[in-house]
Amino acid sequence: MLALSITIIEVALIVMIMLTGGPDKATLPRDTIFSAIMIICNGLVGLCLLIGGLRHHEQSFRAVGANTGLATLIALTTLSLVLPAFTTSSAGATYTIAQLTFAAIASLVLWGVFVFVQTVRHRDYFLPVHDVADEDIHAPPPSVRLAWSSFGMLFVALVAVVGLAKVLSPSIESALEAAGAPKGVIGIAIAMLVLLPETWAAVRAARANRLQTSLNLALGSALASIGLTIPAVAFTSILIGMPLVLGLDPTELVLLALTFLVASITLASGRTHVMQGAIHIVIFAAFLFLALVP
Fold first, then answer.
1. I want to staple 217 with a disulfide (CB 3.0 to 4.6 A). Which of 147, 202, 265, 275 is the partner?
2. pLDDT tens column, 147-162
3. pLDDT in tens, 95-144
4. Tell me, what DSSP letter sits at residue 228?
5. CB count, 10 Å around CB of 283?
């Protein structure tokens, strides 16, 4: 639910700026999604591993579940952000309408299958390593009344935030332009804004020695960011006839490859320590530095 909520906010901000900015904002969805991946896979995961490692020395998680999420994320990212830089049917780092439609459908399918695996078919892959038999170890199940009241409050809050997005998006854009920041920094600002609740929840879980929860939040958020955002912006692009540049630049491709390579090593053993967190934090710092100094 948290991943869905922040994705709705992210899509609202992107679409609002796309509609007001026109063709000049053709790269905004790409920049925002790429920023979200770098923030989650390096900044968020690195911070959780660093804090958890300093506090608990070593932490455990279920490698089978984490690797399932990572494999899905790699496939989604390649289809959405890597392949457009190499296709030849359209000019530049873009997809044709047919290719864009295929990428959108594939994103929805992969995200939907992952949610089914995580919540139904193989739910035990994503439960904490200790006390596996207790499927409710994450938290006691809420009552029906509490669940529906929480859903209603969440809906009201999302409507309010989406409404504010229309008001705040020009201010965010103007502030960054006044500061002389590169265009890609707008995507970083949007991604950081919408990921704050997830970051807070994941860091608290890592401090409490519940790294499995932290990784579930991180990878689930990254998958929702692509699996739901790409179809939404693709539909918007086709509907209003605005070009959509999705292919990454060479520097971004190198950072993405490095991120996935290191993440694959980090998640391979099912145990983490402070060194792995430090590596991810340094990669995240390199991403921020190169965004400001291309």
1. 202
2. 788 778 877 776 776 6
3. 999 999 999 999 999 999 999 998 888 888 888 776 544 444 555 667 77
4. T
5. 19
89 pLDDT more than 80: yes
Spatial contact of 93 and 248, defined as CB atoms under 8 Å apart: yes
What is the rounded distance in angstroms from the CA atom of residue 189 to the CA atom of residue 278? 23
Residue 246: CB atoms within 10 Å: 29
**Matching residue, tokens 């989604």:** 76
**Chain mean position to CA 64:** 20
If you count them, how many residues does the chain have?
294
pLDDT of residue 81: 93
DSSP letter for each residue of 13-74: HHHHHHHHHGGGGTTHHHHHHHHHHHIIIIIIHHHHHHHHHHHHS-EE--HHHHHHHHHHHH
Alpha helices in the chain (DSSP H): 2-21, 28-38, 45-56, 63-77, 97-116, 144-178, 184-207, 211-227, 229-240, 250-266, 274-292
Q: Is 273 helix (H, G, I), strand (E, B) or coil?
A: coil
The dihedral sign for the CA sequence 90, 94, 97, 98: positive
Residue 245's DSSP bridge partners are 94
Q: Using only C-alpha atoms, what is the Rg of the chain?
A: 19
Task: Report CA-CA distances (Å) from 149 to 2, 4, 141, 146, 219.
Answer: 16, 18, 14, 5, 27
